[in-house]
Backbone:
C-alpha cells in the first residue's frame, strides 16, 4: 500500500513538474511505439480479411477441406454424370475429363490455401494477438519500474538533505 502511495505521489509530482522525471524511451523508440499500434491494427484487419478469402475450412486437415470445397463437389458431380452417360458417349468422356481437371484444381487450391494459412495467416495472428500485446505489457511494466526508481531517488535525496541539514548529536 505504501509503495502504491509513493508511486502515485511521484506521478503527481512529475505531472505538476516538481519532481525529476526519467525518460523511459528515447525519441526513436517512442516513434517505434506509436507505429506499433498501427502495425497491430493492420495485421489484425489483414488477418481477418485473409481468413474471409480462404474457401476451405481453416485448421482442418486436407481431406476435410477437400470434401467441403465447391470445386470438389463439382468434380464429383461431373464424374458421376460421366458414369451415368458411359465412357462411350462424347459427353460422358468430356464430363470425365472435366471432372478430373476440376479435382486437380481443387487439390491445388487446397494446397495453396494451406500454405497461405501456414506462412501468412498464422504469423499475422501471432504478431497481432501475442507478440504486440506482450511488447505493450512489457512497456507498461518498464514505465512502472522507472516510476519506482524515480520515487526511490527522490526519497534518497530527501533523506540525504535531511541528514545534512540536521546533524544528529
Residues:
Amino acid at each position: 500500500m505504501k509503495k502504491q502511495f509513493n508511486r502515485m505521489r511521484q506521478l503527481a509530482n512529475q505531472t505538476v513538474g516538481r519532481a525529476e522525471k526519467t525518460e523511459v524511451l528515447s525519441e526513436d523508440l517512442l516513434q517505434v511505439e506509436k507505429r506499433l499500434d498501427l502495425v497491430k491494427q493492420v495485421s489484425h484487419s489483414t488477418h481477418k480479411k485473409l481468413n474471409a478469402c480462404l474457401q476451405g475450412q481453416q485448421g482442418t486437415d486436407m481431406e476435410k477441406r477437400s470434401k467441403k470445397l465447391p470445386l470438389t463437389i463439382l468434380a464429383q458431380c461431373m464424374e458421376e454424370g460421366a458414369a451415368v452417360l458411359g465412357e462411350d458417349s462424347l459427353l460422358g468422356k468430356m464430363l470425365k475429363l472435366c471432372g478430373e481437371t476440376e479435382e486437380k484444381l481443387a487439390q491445388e487450391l487446397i494446397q495453396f490455401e494451406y500454405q497461405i494459412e501456414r506462412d501468412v495467416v498464422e504469423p499475422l495472428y501471432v504478431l497481432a494477438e501475442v507478440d504486440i500485446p506482450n511488447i505493450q505489457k512489457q512497456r507498461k511494466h518498464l514505465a512502472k519500474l522507472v516510476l519506482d526508481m524515480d520515487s526511490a531517488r527522490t526519497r534518497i535525496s530527501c533523506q540525504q538533505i535531511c541528514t545534512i541539514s540536521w546533524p544528529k548529536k
